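Let's do one together. I've listed all components of the complex below, 227 residues spread over two lines.
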Amino acid sequence: DIQLTQSPSFLSASVRDRVSITCRASQGISSDLAWYQQKPGKAPKLLIYAASTLQSGVPSRFSGSGSGTEFILTIRSLQPEDSATYYCQQRNSYPITFGQGTRLEIK
Amino acid sequence: EVQLVDSGGGLVQPGGSLRLSCAASGFTFSDHYMDWVRQAPGKGLEWVGRIRKKANSYTTEYAASVKGRFTISRDDSKNSLYLQMNSLKTEDTAVYYCARASGTFVFDYWGQGTLVTVSS
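Okay, and this is what the predicted structure of the assembly comes out as:
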């Protein structure tokens, strides 16, 4: 199975800050990585797929980069509504796996 | 508007069975692979399994943790996805989400989730 390790597990930042979350895969997965945002009590929401493609309707302050084993989700100019848990997910091989999540707190 | 509505959750004893349903609307259900993803209370997301479309013979994939106990099926005439869960364990307690796989096989739409509690 492909393990995805996210860092950090918790992040606290202020409005208008720029933050980055890293997702490392235990083996190469090309660009087969997606990012999701989940707010408490809600279903996850797709933000980015194919490592760097922004899902329709997602604000442009979200961006993704990387390939192979290291991927980064960047949120620039943080907004209060970005407070959530973020997950990476690989679709390169079965079983599909998720990272353990990164909780982002807006100060 | 794409909608996925999960139902069928509840309280069940260890060793029992439960069948979850997901009603789809707003898109051509038969054109998409469909998945189940679960989330134990206070924990992260765990993929449960996938069913492909008719063109791919409705074949399925499962996580090791549920293989042999859970069965995913679909009824394209009813735009519905199902998860039959047998031999349930306490560690199966979770919110279960159905999710649509996009053309790039990531989850672009999700149901609202249904809570399954396995407890005596």
